[in-house]
Recover the amino acids of this structure.
């Protein structure tokens, strides 16, 4: 397969370029009988929609989703669910001057070497816009997980050097950076205004927590649940680092510190701590799954940069157009959705783990 | 698939439990006509072989590989290459006392919840021993890459808090911690001796560099080259964090700092810096690929720990047996091999990217 | 995956129900740089379009295809090619009386048992209408094959007991049954008129020939080229038998008769006969590939039939609606397209067969 | 993948050449908790073992299977089950004279064109010997199906022109041709003796019946259950035709004849007839699944045949060695096992079809 199909039993195929006719996704493997409406999907799409604050691109896309198939009388049929999002606002002229130049920090050069041609309008297939299709598909996975009491919530943990010091989920929805800490949000806003003033951009950190995940999801070797999550999260453009639980810090600790002691409570196995981030040996251990995505600063900046042309000449470039000074806030929902796709797939795959669970 | 098959065009299926009859791997998709001998594979297996220093388990395994198929008159046939490694030294008695207890920091509990039973001898399928099969298969991938001038080298970047300050590849092979910095090696040795004395264990960091990778490998969306690498590296037991290029630090920098400027030299595109770690937008950019794996401390420690039994009673556990106080040195070659598998698969998959490259 | 994704390197995901908003396909893996327009696809769709003769359903569908992605300035980008076909003429009322009855010869009952619900309008996902998506995707595969001199042509070999006695490709396009023999066409027409008069339906045989296929496509074990073709052709609704080369008759012959002798001509290997149908041991042998699909009579007939309801009561059914008395003529292009998908996939997969053919 | 991996959730990877060190299979995805012993597998392997009658090759192989992994204390662990069969009797000298000649009716030429080299000893990977690995893996699938009351039985329906006229399963095991009709067996024996006398070979037909299959297995579009069965059966060397239910004859019948009427009995849906062969629209309908494989005559015959060398010269060939005058009897168990693999995979994949069946 050529890299646009995700998952094994809950599979998603996405398509679409930034400035083509449309983008979308086809889900193959969603169980039948689940209630699903366009509103269920739209509310997730609206969270990543551009043009919602001073810190996101002014590009104006309605991002209205249409369910083309797989749903009958309000319920999933077990057949492919095709989701379509038309591209409306295509300022191709914004990009014509970039036609022959490779933008630093972008896929342009590698893409051109791979395919010999490229849709230079907004990055084409490599545009962050493709994540809208992930969100559309992921929202269906999240709906399915919700039926089993599994919830996934992500938020902005840091913008550049400004990190949160507390987590108040109510706060998240109330600020444009999706930060669960109001003080941090205000400091981060100042930091971003400075970036914009300097024609520069910022990165940040997204944290995601999945609750209600039963012990036993994931596989022991290649398809470890955390390996699948790493694959899913690192496949989001601009993510350069991934952590599960204590993540990188675990390398500094000792076994006696890092091990989570087990104990019984109300007839259930619990852990005194959760350094593991809810996954041990690739299999969920019943605790909350905690992961972090480290996002690089938006590569599109208005400063002059040195680069080359596709005919091999040195040149310089100044990226005008409409770009987010930081993509973290809009990527929060993408992290939630990719996490949902991995968990949904693992849950379905797990149905055949034990002979005693197989039903005719 | 159930998680023991890796790759799309260069596929590897591994099998085997720590204390079963054997472990091994079947490669399906290796091109025909490549010279391959058991020695080519053995030299990689010998690097992860236990019992080689005071810092690795005393378990004594010859880990001799046998090529069962796929090679004829010294060359690959294009058919599946089956690699077999017999388990010799199986001290099952070491584990009988752990039969009903879940070891903290291990997969035991989740595995039991998933499958309803488990081979408690040395972790069974979840044992680090399964990585020998990865190394056997990965060495074939590395041999193939070498034919195209692509080389992959990994080393120990840190043991606990002790980090290297220079990289001398010659030094690596000469010390038991596979550290490219002799001073760091000596400090790390002291640190580990202290851990052992305290019945404790340490973690660390492995860094891996791939040179000679052409621009254009990897796919723009889900199968980004760095996403596939994250999946491969995070699937190695005990890895809790993954970075490509600047990794997590990228979240702190600004676009003007993080972007790598392009320039021409000798008719080739180069980058002034390599913050990207050789991959932009999921596609290789022609620079060295640089990744890091953050490894948690060995969970098996001799200290008494609180845990529970598979019948739901609180208890304590002291893990005797033979365990590495740190797994990093032996995992270095595993990281090399998993990186090799990803690059080999990406190279084969890339053969059909352009219509002009397709040959009858 | 849940059965709507086809292929390994040239993959197709289809979606859509007979009376939903739309049907379509997403191709992932088509090489970049190939010229492609909606006209290239439309001309194949027009061949299966309903309402073109007295022998096909009167359902009126424009079946206009829209390319949503993957094509830029007239050439494929190497990214997913999404193809959309809106459903226009949806006479749902035609089906309301079948809402709770399982149509004999149709998937209704099994589908209901599998999913617990079903879109009863025209068979929903199980409608022959889904083949339009196959044709849209297959036409792209055929275009790609054509660039390498590989051509695929199918025709009606038999309608019920009326079999062709000669093959004149020019004749095919000139008659509504797509038969390459005018006399046979006339006899078949009489036979079908009789069927219609008796509220009955007919089956038939489709033969397909692929020319220009190089020796070496396909794999030796599970993914034999003929096994993949059988999978592709048998996945077309109503196909109950598949043959390659001599097919079933081979069981009656002797080795001395069935073996095709090799000989050299103009420095190329040739075969004196082609009993093998162009494939030996699962790998193409350089001769024409010849396969046949045996199609059952249309199950939707106006005669009264005994059946049951989804609440478990015996009942009878008379299927009104608009149905083809024979689906063979419209299925001819579907067989061509599915054959094209298999060959295109095999050609791409074959690019990494030999180490000497791998290019950076 | 390169064609030696079969299945989606119950996957099998096979390996091995006819005259290499060993052949074998790795099953990934077999549920945990199923009782499994080497005897369970051996009894199937013994049925295809060579050297058991005057009508099979004299090659003497013990074909003893060893379970290398995946079974602990007599039960499956849910981890990969590796099965190893050593090659003992390797008369390579029998083949040295065929080193540079392509055998008519064999894969030799296509294989050489594909890979540029080949193991000429007994066909290497293309040898019928690879089916032993299928039988080893398939027997595990059949054991799993048996736990759910699903049984698969195949037998020889015809040898050349000699067809059975009755089916007595007890008779099957009692004659060397695995024919369920003693009279037919005797006639077939005479026919085969004549073939041997004339240095010729025969083909035949294998019929397979699966009972106890619930309605609802299989998918509506590409992964129709009959399409998967066709793929599995056509992937067995020498099979040139495949039928489900009435198969090719269905093309001659009318809808009123071919449709199977539904009726209720004891609260269950039944069919008055079974022209469909247990599958409608790609989904099992609860009736017995009936399929047929048409096998060509053994291509290895002692008569002189015209062929070419791998250096492009015309030549003649007489195939000595030890060859079955007919492969049908030994292929019967292979058909059973491949059918088992498809049904086991479909059963596991079906576990996630309905939301109401998903369990945490």
């Amino acid at each position: 397969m050529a890299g646009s199909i995700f998952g094994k039993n809950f599979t998603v195929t996405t398509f679409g370029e930034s400035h083509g006719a449309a983008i979308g996704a086809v889900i193959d493997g969603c169980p039948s009988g689940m209630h699903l409406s366009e509103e269920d999907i739209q509310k997730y799409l609206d969270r990543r929609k551009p043009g919602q604050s001073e810190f996101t691109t002014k590009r104006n896309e309605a991002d209205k989703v249409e369910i083309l198939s797989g749903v009958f009388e309000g319920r999933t049929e077990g057949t492919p669910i095709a989701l379509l999002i038309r591209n409306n606002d295509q300022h191709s002229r914004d990009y014509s001057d970039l036609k022959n130049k490779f933008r630093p920090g972008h896929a342009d050069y590698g893409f051109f070497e791979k395919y010999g041609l490229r849709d230079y309008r907004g990055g084409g297939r490599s545009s962050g816009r493709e994540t809208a299709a992930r969100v559309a598909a992921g929202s269906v996975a999240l709906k399915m997980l919700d039926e089993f009491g599994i919830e996934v919530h992500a938020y902005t943990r840091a913008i550049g050097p400004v990190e949160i010091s507390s987590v108040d989920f109510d706060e998240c929805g109330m600020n444009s950076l999706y930060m669960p800490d109001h003080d941090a949000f205000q400091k981060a806003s100042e930091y971003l205004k400075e970036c914009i003033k300097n024609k520069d951009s910022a990165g940040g950190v997204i944290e995601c927590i999945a609750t209600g995940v039963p012990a036993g999801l994931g596989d022991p070797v290649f398809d470890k649940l955390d390996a699948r999550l790493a694959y899913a999260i690192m496949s989001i453009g601009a993510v350069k680092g991934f952590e599960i639980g204590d993540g990188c810090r675990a390398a500094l600790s000792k076994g006696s510190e890092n091990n989570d002691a087990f104990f019984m409570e109300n007839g259930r196995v619990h852990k005194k701590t959760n350094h593991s981030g809810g996954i041990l040996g690739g299999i969920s251990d019943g605790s909350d799954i905690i992961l972090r995505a480290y996002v690089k600063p938006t590569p599109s900046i208005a400063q002059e940069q040195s680069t080359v042309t596709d005919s091999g000449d040195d040149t310089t470039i100044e990226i005008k157009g409409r770009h987010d000074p930081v993509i973290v806030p809009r990527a929060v929902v993408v992290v939630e959705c990719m996490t949902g796709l991995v968990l949904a797939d693992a849950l379905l795959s797990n149905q055949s783990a034990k002979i005693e669970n197989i039903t005719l």
Remarks:
- The interface with chain D takes residues 8-10, 29, 31-34, 76, 78-79, 144, 147-149, 214, 220, 347-349, 351-360 of chain A (CB under 8 Å).
- The two ends of chain A are 31 Å apart (CA to CA).
